[in-house]
Amino acid sequence: MTPRRELRLNAFQMAAPSHNWAGLWRHPRDTQADYNTLSWWTDMAQTAERGFLDGLFIADVFGLYDVYAGNGDAALLAGAQAPNADPVLAVSAMAHVTRHLGFGITQNLTYDHPFPFARRFTTLDHLTGGRLGWNIVTGYLDSGARGMGLTDSRDHDQRYEAAEDFMAAIYKLWEGSWEDDAVLRDRAAGVFTRPDKVHRVVHDGPFYKVDARHLAEPSPQRTPVLYQAGTSERGVRFAGRHAESVFLNGPTKPAAARAVRAVRDAAREAGRGPYDVLTFLGATVIVAPTSAEARDLRDEYRRYIDAAGQLALVSGWTGIDLSGLSLDDPLAFQRTNAIRSTVENLTRAERPTRVRDLLDFTPAGARAPVLVGSPSEVADELLSWVAETDVDGFNLVRTVMPESLDAVVTLLVPELQARGAFKTAYRDGTLREKLFAGRGPRLSDSHPGAGFRRPAKD
């Protein structure tokens, strides 16, 4: 494989007892209920690094899934992304016990402000040695908005207008406030920082205002690697401008290929290269030494899926209350203020998606491929998806932990390595340098954030 086509793999996690499959925390071998202990995270990070995974991609949602039946009871009962913890706080501990693993942290910008956010992520980029990524999301749950004292979420497209404003402000702080040689640490002269090289940022946008110098000195990457999740038409335009990696879902190869192609086209239209953006497809992988053992695991796992909890998740993702439908009812398209690409994929598929399809390890239920088999069979399927969709890699959805991640590391990764499809060692450098061969630690010159850099001067 060329460096561009080197397969990428992230462990897809969340600081909650259930992530994309509600109820699996009840499995007798599962440890997801320990999500709020530090050792759960540090052990997982070490396992992921042992398998040369590119990163931990940590999902997050701000609010409770309360679209289903008009309340959050089903989500709370099933542990369906509730309770959930702040995904930021365990990262420095995970970085301390690893050397190369990257960390893609989902953070909602709608209820934050660029000034404290910039300091928080600069700090984490320092503490991880430049292994930090930010998954930019705008939020879609009205419950989160109400928790912040608002009546409901911003309109879908307005969320992206606010995101553009947020990005302009934060690029000024990360890229333009401190010159590269501002910090001297000169003990003899008693000068830590040259004040003339730390510049005031003034941003007077429609959603965010800043008038300050950035509080933190430049970190190894300055701007963390920028991820984005959202493949609506407006989300794709945003990704084309800002994202360096995009997380997308697609239950079929044609749907995934369309999503990948849209991102590449958007990058080109924004004046960037189409492969300046890596694309990661969600995938549920159940791998075992033999095909029969993998199918047995799937059958064992499916007995622990919580039906109401799973429908609470899908209702939240789509903005459609599924509580009044029977198992054989098809999902009908509705224009909502939630994840529009999910609504499109579930309601405009070639075969109508029924409610019962959401309650099992199916592409409809997963919103993405479900691959069950031996290491050779799963590797064949992953590489087939790469060849037919042009995707760069996969966010591997957890099922039963830690055995689902252990199986990827001990069974699937060696199979991919034997085919020359996956790395056998990490590159040196920051997360950006690891993900993009030949690229430095900073944003590429073609990225709009690079336009906010301040040239060095004496």
Automatic annotation (TrEMBL):
Print the keywords alphabetically: Flavoprotein, FMN, Monooxygenase, Oxidoreductase
Q: InterPro entries from the entry? A: Diverse_substr_monoxygenases, Luciferase-like_dom, Luciferase-like_sf, NTA_MOA
Q: Has UniProt tagged this entry with the keyword Flavoprotein?
A: yes
Q: Which residues form the signal peptide?
A: none
Classification via Gene3D superfamilies: Luciferase-like domain
The record's annotation in SUPFAM superfamilies points to:
Bacterial luciferase-like
| Superkingdom of origin | Bacteria
Residue ranges occupied by any Luciferase-like domain in the UniProt entry: 26-387
Chain positions recorded as FMN binding sites:
D60, T106, H156, Y160, S232
| Pfam families in the cross-refs | Bac_luciferase
Annotated region Disordered: where? 437-458
What GO molecular function annotations does the UniProt record carry, in alphabetical order?
monooxygenase activity; oxidoreductase activity, acting on paired donors, with incorporation or reduction of molecular oxygen
NCBIfam families, alphabetized: FMN_nitrolo
Q: Which PANTHER family match?
A: ALKANESULFONATE MONOOXYGENASE-RELATED, C2H2 FINGER DOMAIN TRANSCRIPTION FACTOR (EUROFUNG)-RELATED
**To which protein family does this belong?**
Belongs to the NtaA/SnaA/DszA monooxygenase family.
User: What is this protein's name?
Assistant: FMN-dependent monooxygenase
Please report the organism this UniProt entry assigns to the protein: Methylobacterium currus
Identify the taxonomic lineage of the organism of origin: Bacteria, Pseudomonadati, Pseudomonadota, Alphaproteobacteria, Hyphomicrobiales
